[in-house]
Amino acid sequence: MLSVLPERFRHVVIEGPIGVGKTSLARRLADATGAALMLEAPEDNPFLARFYEDMPRYALPTQLFFLFQRIHQLHDLRHPDMFKGATVGDFLFEKDPLFARLTLADDELALYEQMYRHLKPQAPVPDLVIYLQADPATLAERVKKRGVEHEQPISEAYLAKLAERYTRFFHHYDAAPTLIVNAERFNFVDSDEDFGFLIKRIREMRGKREYVNRMA
User: 72-116 pLDDT, tens per residue?
Assistant: First the structure.
């Protein structure tokens, strides 16, 4: 039986650092609700594998490729048809600078930010953001377990910096209603109970910012 998202949540974004499970959750949520699925396509970025091997050298082309890829994917959502169904994605355009500020040199960052400011008005604001959190050690374990070849050079230290930047970003983010989920002890992909609990929290959400946690 399909789980139906509230009508007010027509564009839902799952976010979080590498390895937290955002793409897997986006797939399951889209499948359960009948929503269209909009995923990042890192396999299309010709610089990504080289970036993880040599970040200073390949950070700028990697970042710019993702910037233009994401704005292109979001283009059709700028003018949603009133009869169009929901869309679930695994990226938030506004978080794009988070990676840039972590990896780019000052002059590269200035160039990137000029381009970002030009493109940002074209990106639609989602109706709901689900931000998944996990400890860096958990992220590193999940990255290793899923075995994507170009991700294997990613260090736990890099993931720790990335997780910290995400925390800082979402501390200030208020453009859309945000459900902040501690994903350490949830398995939304394989556990029907956990997934059903999340759907229930989405349906019940009334505030601008709410939290989901499970104690040990």
Answer: 999 878 766 654 678 999 999 999 999 999 999 999 999 999 999
- In the CATH scheme, what is the code of domain 11-212? 3.40.50.300
Residue 38: strand, helix, or coil: strand
Contact between 129 and 179 (Cβ < 8 Å): yes
Distances (CA, A) of 23 to 26, 33, 88: 5, 15, 10
DSSP character at residue 41: -
15/12 Cα distance (integer angstroms): 10
User: Residue 20 CB: number of other CB atoms within 10 A?
Assistant: 26
59/113 Cα distance (integer angstroms): 14
CB 12 within 8 A of CB 128: yes
DSSP state of 187: -
Residue with tokens 């989405």: 202
User: Which H/E stretch holds residue 177?
Assistant: none
pLDDT given for residue 80 in this prediction: 61
C-alpha torsion 195→166→153→60, nearest 10: 130
The answer to pTM > 0.85 is yes
State phi, psi for 68 to the nearest 5 degrees: -75, -35
Q: Nearest 5 degrees, angle CA 171-CA 86-CA 207? A: 35
**Token reading at 124:** 């639609």
User: Which secondary-structure segment (H or E) carries 105?
Assistant: none
